[in-house]
């Protein structure tokens, strides 16, 4: 089914049109990414509006929408023309993406009632189509290749920022269309910061290095984390590393479409708690991803609902000892009826460079 057909299925009486303002929903509906624009979806017609910077790309790439330039008229005029032409009285909008000021402007300018509708607009994205999965597989292949190529570049004395630059270069060199997020590249005691920021710290022998990164391919994200060591590790570092790896294996063993997110989280968390590190695993086991790096549903302790077939979620337990070191290992997997398909192929044994 085309994504635009999914959106049309929502027009069952509660609303008779959809106002798509976020880049993600416009991309999902049009199956083509334009940085700026607004779209309207109705059963009587669909229109996509953008400005002169993107109009040629939009006209060449977008199917299923009439594509119009806003030059000289602006978005409200184009939208009101569509509202009149298509007989729209109510528009479902994406409340989590609009600011209060933007909503107030639309409410004042448009000749239709605006109805919060994000949950239904967003909901389709939990389950990926085969072509979406292919994009995510390719995104992960690029990330895996970048990891392989960056490892020989790690040197004692280089800064975290230098290593981050090398990693970004490797991602783009191998075909990334963009970055899923700003990479996390931290070393030594900074690895105890789950979302630490690369800085001037120099890599030293005996450090752990954590690299959390992902690429965009046709707008779809990959996400992976690997923790490697430089020169040597202590007995405790090795213990923590393999505790995290066993926790991930336990979470993956529990992974299957239809299993509640909290059950998957609990399977991984138990391994870390049994090893005595429970207080040092503070975040959830995983999150969904797709057009955005954080989507829903999530395999975490707060989700009692089953994860659906063909959702894509991360598997990323971690242990973080404040001021000392931390370890995180992350893959992303497709939920299947039998279990899962792991998108990542990078090794997970402890690598000592």
Topology, pairings included?
Elements lengths: L2 H6 L8 E4 L2 H8 L7 E5 L2 E6 L4 H7 L4 E4 L5 H12 L3 E4 L6 H10 L3 E4 L1 H6 L6 H21 L9 H14 L4 E2 L4 E4 L20 E6 L1 E3 L2 E2 L2 E6 L5 H19 L7 H14 L37 E4 L2 E4 L3 E4 L2 E5 L4 E3 L11
Parallel strand pairs: 1-5, 3-4, 5-6
Antiparallel strand pairs: 1-2, 2-3, 7-10, 8-9, 9-12, 10-11, 13-16, 14-15, 16-17
Q: How would you describe the overall organization of this protein?
A:
The protein is of the alpha+beta class and 353 residues long. It has helices at residues 3-8, 23-30, 55-61, 75-86, 100-109, 118-123, 130-150, 160-173, 235-253, 261-274; strands at 17-20, 38-42, 45-50, 66-69, 90-93, 113-116, 178-179, 184-187, 208-213, 215-217, 220-221, 224-229, 312-315, 318-321, 325-328, 331-335, 340-342. It folds into two domains: 3-125, 3-Layer(aba) Sandwich (Creatine Amidinohydrolase, Chain A, domain 1), CATH 3.40.350; 130-342, Creatine Amidinohydrolase (Alpha-Beta Complex). 33% of the residues lie in helices and 20% in strands. The strands form five sheets. Strands 4-3-2-1-5-6 form a six-stranded mixed β-sheet, with helices on both faces. β16 and β17 (340-342) form a beta hairpin. The protein is elongated.
Q: Helix share of residues?
A: 25-40%
Beta-strand proportion: 15-25%
CATH class of the largest domain: Alpha Beta
Average pLDDT figure? 97
Could you describe the largest sheet, including whether it forms a barrel?
A: 6 strands, mixed
The CATH superfamily of the largest domain is identified as: Creatinase/methionine aminopeptidase superfamily
Number of domains: 2
Which strand order does the major sheet show? Answer: 4-3-2-1-5-6
Q: Give the overall shape.
A: elongated
Could you say what the CATH topology of the largest domain is called? Creatine Amidinohydrolase
In whole angstroms, the N-to-C terminal distance is 47 Å
H-E string: HEHEEHEHEHEHHHEEEEEEHHEEEEE
Question: How many whole angstroms does the radius of gyration measure?
Answer: 23 Å
CATH architecture of the largest domain: Alpha-Beta Complex
Query: What structural class do helix, strand and pairing data support?
Result: alpha+beta
